[in-house]
Design goal:
Layout: H1 3-16, E1 33-38, H2 43-50, E2 58-63, H3 74-84, E3 90-96, H4 106-113, H5 119-124, H6 132-136, H7 142-154, E4 165-170, E5 177-181
Parallel strand pairs: 1-2, 1-3, 3-4
Antiparallel strand pairs: 4-5
């Protein structure tokens, strides 16, 4: 049985047994926080547990490296919606040690893409104004990545100037949090 069918079979039992009841909550974050975090698999359960968060406490937005790479991309849109529609009053950017985005080499990644798409398609991105090297670039240190995302959020023209934006780094092995920005 493939993974999708295993999940669907489990889900049917989960729903039939009403195992969802302990997770019932509203769509608004109880602690009025939106967290931008990395999509790293080690953080799926560790991050909320290390922060004593339960279902319904916060909104969590995830992407590679917890990086806000464009002021009008989908990450910023999600943060704007969380603040203006979902009553979030703070933004926390949480990167993590040993993050893959700190190791991304745009040239190597583009080379891997050429196994799936043609060199012409990759080259055509320049003609529509996309600098793939810049777009795929990671960060030098996780702290720098967090600071960059915090700065992009703090300076966004559509967010309140007094919105608290905090930057943290979590250890994906222990869950220890270190504050990077205030």
């Amino acid at each position: 049985m493939d993974t999708l069918h295993e999940v669907l079979k489990f889900n049917e039992e989960f729903v039939n047994n009403k195992e969802y009841v302990p997770y019932e909550t509203t769509g608004l974050p109880d602690k009025k926080i939106v967290i931008l975090s990395c999509m790293d698999t080690r953080l799926v359960e560790l991050l909320p547990r290390a922060m004593n968060l339960k279902n319904g406490d916060v909104k969590i937005v995830k992407n590679a490296g917890a990086v806000v790479s464009h002021p009008f991309g989908s990450i910023m849109r999600s943060i704007l919606v969380a603040v203006y529609e979902l009553q979030a009053e703070e933004v926390w950017v949480i990167g993590h040690h040993d993050c893959g985005m700190g190791k991304v080499n745009p040239d190597e990644l583009l080379h891997k893409m050429e196994d799936s798409v043609t060199k012409e398609v990759v080259a055509s991105m320049k003609h529509v104004g996309i600098d793939l090297h810049s777009w795929l670039q990671g960060f030098t240190t996780v702290q720098d990545g967090v600071r960059g995302s915090v700065s992009m959020i703090q300076n966004h023209p559509l967010l309140p100037k007094d919105l608290p934006v905090h930057g943290l780094v979590i250890d994906p092995a222990t869950g220890k949090l270190d504050q990077v920005t205030e």
